[in-house]
Amino acid sequence: MPDLVIVADDGPVRTVRINRPEKKNALTVPMYEAMADAIEGAATDPALRCVVIAGAPGAFCAGNDLQDFLHAADRAQGLAPPLVRFLVTLARAEVPLVAAVSGLAVGIGTTMLLHCDHVVASSEARFSTPFVHLGLVPEAASSLLGPRRMGYARAFALLAMGRPLDAAGAVAAGIVNAIASPAEVDAQAMAAAREIAALPAEALAATRRLLRGSPDAAIERIEVEADLFGVRLASAEARAAFAAFLARKK
User: Fold this and answer.
1) Positions of E strands within 89-232
2) Long-range contacts: 229-235, Cβ < 8 Å, 24+?
3) pTM score of the predicted model
4) 3-state secondary structure of 213
5) Least confident of 43-52, 77-86, 182-191
6) What is the tens place of the pLDDT at every residue in 182-203?
7) d(CA 87, CA 183)
8) Which of 49, 98, 108, 155 has its CA 20 to 30 A from that of 170?
């Protein structure tokens, strides 16, 4: 079985690549653990100055694996602790985060981008957060960061109504910095990462702290969302929505 998360260091840049293309890079508990380890580990290596989160051509991340959600609902559990750990790791990240978004970005595939410092998206990228359609609530502190980043109206359309964004819409919403052709997404993201890595380290760290502010509010919101997510996951409304979704996929 191939590694579902591939971690590779190239000079000052660490790439964390989601590698489950047959499932459109849907994330499982072990994958969250591996990604959190890679991002946390970068902060302990002074030679690493930036982290790039990437996917596969056509699919950055299709969100959380639905079977994991169904199993959690059956066991009356909420978001898995490794998933919450990954979200907190993003909020606390001491090393700048760049994302290379090729194709599909669903659920956490979109909300994790709110924690990134620079996002390059394919011209064919599509962003969607169908939480409410599945009887759930947003996660990754997106209910806090989304309105701050894009304003309440855009955040409501994306996070509550589940209206998708194309690449241009994501730029307008402030989620994406730059659009590239599908073949150039990774290269442009790596170029941005190298540009960031070449900046004076102490000045950059201080500037990130000023721009991002304390992570405490985001982490508190992550925990509140996670608790409510668990309640919603066990609800009859969510079970019905999941059943209808799976029936449509057959």
Assistant:
1) 97-101, 104-106, 118-122, 126-128, 165-166, 178-180
2) 229/78, 229/79, 229/136, 229/137, 229/139, 230/72, 230/77, 230/78, 230/79, 231/78, 232/135, 232/136, 232/137, 233/69, 233/72, 233/73, 233/77, 233/78, 233/136, 234/73, 234/76, 235/135
3) 0.95
4) coil
5) 77-86
6) 999 999 999 999 999 999 999 9
7) 29
8) 49
Q: How far apart are the C-alpha atoms of 182 and 175, rounded to whole Å?
A: 18
Q: For position 1, what pLDDT does the model report?
A: 47
**Residue 44 CA from chain centroid, whole number:** 22
Count of beta carbons in the 10 Å neighbourhood of residue 202:
8
What's the pLDDT at 245? 82
Of the candidates 53, 50, 86, the one whose C-alpha atom is nearest the C-alpha of residue 208 is 50
CA distance 51 to 89: 13
Structure tokens at 120: 């390059």
Please identify which residue in the block is written with the tokens 């639905």: 66
Bridge partners for 7 per DSSP: 16
